[in-house]
Design goal:
Helix content is 80%, strand content 0%. With 317 residues, it is mostly helical. The N and C termini lie far apart (53 Å).
Length: 317
């Protein structure tokens, strides 16, 4: 049994290491092959970009959610937004293998199907969690660079340059992810795609509300004509105000978020400490049928509390 558990853990760690290596390899946005793949991405349905946040139809919210439910497509979009350009099939294979390793290890350790399934689900979700982490970090980095990029675009336009030339200056001054995304938009424009459509494609790769306002501003300026430099300058101020408000909200809710995290993790930490210091205290929970039922119920309540606190502290603006 110990040998099986050891082999299972090594199996899971090896595939986790392979996943990280593949994602690091795919995360190099400066690589020419990755840029070509991004430009040749299968075209999605053309949707007119709107500055307003989309709202679901109140009459059929469930049907609207079912129409959008496509896990493979969602995983692919999250990978592209995270700057990971490996194949979806490779990630799915890793998820399946990690799930199998977790199931074998959980069955060998817990001797219970529910706990083994929970362990397998946790290991199988590691690639998805890593992609989500990379996506969130990349979007935050892009959003942090955006106000300075807007200032540079404004200065270039006021100096008499065209919008395309302003974007070329921007690409030369900013690192990834912002520089790489605008470089891709310029390459698409260079091969014949209108700059507005190229920016809409970039908005699909970087779904940031502040970038959406820039795309709408460019479209409005191209259709009705106006001073794009003034629009971009005002947009830069709005983006900074939004970011300042977001930081204030984060600071005001920091204590509650940290309290909820501590309350949620405290039972797990105490259980782990007692399992190491005095195993006899926790033996009944892991091996007695009644103790296992109590443990399952406690885990369910703990997870429900964590998700509830997270939902209550989420502020949409």
């Amino acid at each position: 049994m110990e040998l099986l558990t050891t082999v299972t853990l090594i199996f899971g760690l090896v595939f986790a290491a392979v996943l990280i290596l593949l994602n690091v390899r795919g995360g190099a946005a400066e690589d020419g092959q990755n840029i070509v793949r991004r430009m040749m991405r299968p075209a999605e349905e053309t949707i007119d970009t709107d500055i307003l946040r989309k709202r679901e139809e109140e009459s059929t919210p469930v049907l609207a959610a079912l129409r959008r439910f496509n896990p493979i497509r969602t995983l692919e979009q999250n990978m592209w937004q995270a700057g990971i350009y490996t194949r979806v099939s490779e990630v799915l294979l890793m998820i399946v293998l990690l799930f199998a390793a977790g199931m074998a290890g959980g069955e060998a350790f817990w001797k219970d199907m529910w706990f083994a399934t929970a362990t397998a689900t946790g290991m199988g979700s590691l690639p998805v969690a890593y992609i989500k982490f990379r996506r969130t970090r990349r979007l935050k980095a892009f959003n942090a660079q955006l106000p300075f990029a807007l200032d540079l675009i404004k200065s270039s336009l006021e100096a008499g340059h065209s919008f395309q030339r302003a974007l070329q200056v921007l690409v030369g001054q900013f690192a990834n992810p912002l520089g790489g995304e605008f470089r891709t938009a310029l390459e698409q424009n260079r091969i014949g795609l209108p700059i507005g459509r190229a920016l809409e494609d970039m908005l699909q790769r970087m779904p940031v509300d502040d970038l959406r306002m820039l795309v709408v501003a460019v479209k409005v300026q191209s259709e009705v004509g106006s001073s794009l430099a003034k629009i971009v300058g005002r947009l830069s101020e709005i983006v900074r105000i939004r970011q300042r408000i977001k930081l204030q909200i984060k600071a005001l809710t920091a204590q509650s978020r940290m309290g909820g995290l501590i309350v949620g993790l405290l039972p797990i930490i105490v259980l782990g400490v007692f399992s190491l210091i005095q195993p006899s205290y926790t033996h009944s929970l892991f091996y007695d049928p009644t103790g296992q039922k109590i443990l399952k119920f406690a885990v369910g309540l703990d997870l429900a509390a964590l998700f509830t606190i997270r939902r209550l502290l989420r502020v949409e603006y």
